[in-house]
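Subject: Cardiolipin synthase N-terminal domain-containing protein

B.,
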Amino acid sequence: MLRALMFILPIALTIYAFIDCLNTPEDETKHLPKVAWVFIILLFWIVGPVVWLVAGKTRRSAAGGGASGPWRREPRARWVAPDDNPEFLKSLRDGGKGGDGASGGDAKDDALLKDWEADLRRREEELKRRDQDGGGKGDGDPKQP
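Prediction pasted inline below.
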């Protein structure tokens, strides 16, 4: 078991460091360019990943006081819930399409709704007439009234 661990652990550490290096932005690498770090990790596959983890990347402090990270550089890029976003709520009011239908809609929507209701009433009347005339005796032919 220990023999297998001696081979698996360095390979796993190399894979982790390689993926971490590839996902790190160029401006967060220390001392060398990102391409150089990739070569160090792959060529020195036992020592390279340890060096990358210790000295290759700028790390945040555990308390979160560091200035690195995308949320520190671009505060306006934060995601805001739709209920808390006044621009989104304003776009709903301006668009005339409130989620609960309280805004009244425009004339085009009202016309579509009236046409749909008229079509629904017509179909219901047609079904009632069929039930009264035939009593549900259909032989499976959809063309028969």
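The helical segments are 2-23, 34-43, 48-56, 70-73, 86-95, 107-134.

T.
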